[in-house]
Amino acid sequence: MKNPTPTSPPGPPPEHFPAPWASDWGEDPYGLWQSLTYRGVRQAFRWMPPGRFLMGSPENEYARYDNELQHEVILTRGFWLAETACTQALWQAVMGENPSYFKGDQRPVERVSWNEAQDFIKRINGTVPGLEARLPTEAEWEYACRAGTTTSFSFGEDITPDQVNYDGNYPYRVDKTGLSRGETVEVASLPANPWGLYEMHGNVWEWCQDWYGDYPKGPVVDLTGPTTGERRVLRGGSWILLGRCARSAYRLRDEPGDRVDDFGFRLALGPKLRRDERAGQGKGGAGQTAREAPGGREKRGRAGPAARKQPAK
Fold first, then answer.
1. What is the mean pLDDT of residues 111-116?
2. Disulfide: which of 18, 101, 117, 192 matches 25 by Cβ 3.0-4.6 Å?
């Protein structure tokens, strides 16, 4: 299966480039990039210009769910998104410990809750002036994941284990099974999407800023999700789950305090969310949470040496 051709995302450049904290920067076929080097650990970020896209999935997409109502989203503000999920090396440099089950400096950090990701963000923002790190909104995440595509994946209508780290015993469309690694892989070890972002599909779930909620039925500008809720959004699929769960439109939700060995995150940078866009406290709607295998069986993993806690259905 052919990998996507590098494409610079259309749209205006950032107002200020490079940032004062940038250790190196440049432009390549994927567009503008700049890197932060924190205590010897480098994290690259790529520019995501303002734009519009169709969020969710069409009704005829194979194996879709009802909570993926397709609607137009307009993002009026550009943002920077990390080229990869946060690595264990960066987490260790900031937090001084490593909670991950699958150890490796260049593997994504996992067994990290939404709350712990916020602690990480607060700490790194407190030591790097002007960084303005945060989690991406769910809309920003899908915009970047799709990278201008409208197919089930940024790679096309299907994927292979050569492109995505998922459970190859449960392929998406084809009947032929493939490699199931049974663990995370190092970041940037699989092909990038058209905008130069690695492992947006599979490897680890990535926390988003939003509370989970039903999608609106019409076009939305700068969608940031509900203002209250009980569970936060995760996106992207993971090493232990089916191919269908790695689709660009697939949505998972879980409690912000849960930490599992396929929960990680990817940093976004600025602009700061307006006060009415920040998530608050309270109750929210239900959503797709089952870690499913064919026939309704749940897939099990680890929250460490003990069995993983399953999200509520």
1. 98
2. 18
Instruction: Say which amino acid occupies 185.
Output: V
Instruction: Specify whether the CB–CB gap between 199 and 109 falls below 8 A.
Output: no
Burial 123-132 (b: 16+ CB within 10 A, else e): ebeeebeebb
Percent of the chain with pLDDT over 90: 82
Between 108 and 281, whose confidence is greater? 108
Q: In whole angstroms, what is the distance from residue 281 CA to residue 86 CA?
A: 26
The answer to whether the beta carbons of residues 192 and 7 sit under 8 Å apart is no
Distance between alpha carbon 249 and the CA centroid of its chain, in Å?
11
- The DSSP annotation for 181-194 comes to --S---TT-S-B-T
The model's pTM is 0.89
168-198 tens-digit pLDDT: 999 999 888 999 999 999 999 999 999 999 9
Kindly tell me if the per-residue pLDDT of 302 is higher than 90: no
The residue among 61, 119, 87 whose CA lies nearest residue 188 is: 87
State the maximum Cα–Cα separation within the chain, in Å, rounded to a whole number: 53
Close Cβ partners of 55 (under 8 Å, ≥ 6 residues apart): 70, 71, 72, 73, 139, 142, 143, 215, 223, 249
Pairing of strands 71-75, 220-221: parallel
